[in-house]
Specification:
With 118 residues, this protein is an all-alpha fold. The chain has helices spanning 2-21, 25-36, 41-65, 71-91, 97-117. The protein has one domain. Helix 1 (2-21) crosses helix 3. The mean pLDDT is 87.
Length: 118
């Protein structure tokens, strides 16, 4: 029961970040799934992706309903994102989890500093 509540809380926080900022839910899901929910290190990243796909679809639907999506601008990004997702998914099994966590940490710090300076 406690784990189910923690997983639901992780999903809620990830969804709120995604809905508010258009991204960032995975940055919340990864550490919470690992530390709070005690998910196996190798399962954290794929589980976070499984959480983020439906979360992104819901956020996208809300943005579409409010006319906030510039689809022609987003289309090239989508194509690149698909290619990057395939590449990342194929590389994932070959990269040690400690390097995946470090890489995510670097991205979080870089993004945070960049947002604070703009």
């Amino acid at each position: 029961m406690k784990r189910t509540v923690l997983l639901a809380l992780t999903g809620t926080l990830s969804g709120a970040a995604n809905g508010l900022f258009g991204a960032g839910g995975g940055m919340i899901a990864v550490p919470l799934l690992g530390k709070l929910c005690r998910l196996d290190a190798r399962a954290v990243f794929p589980t976070a992706m499984g959480i983020m796909l439906p979360t992104c679809m819901v956020s996208l639907s809300v943005y579409l309903l409010h006319g906030a999506l510039d689809f022609p601008l987003a289309l090239p990004y989508l194509a690149g994102g698909v290619l990057g997702g395939i590449g990342g998914g194929l590389l994932y099994p070959h990269i040690p989890t400690k390097w995946l966590h470090r890489g995510l940490g670097i991205l979080i710090v870089y993004g945070g500093v960049r947002l604070l300076l703009t």
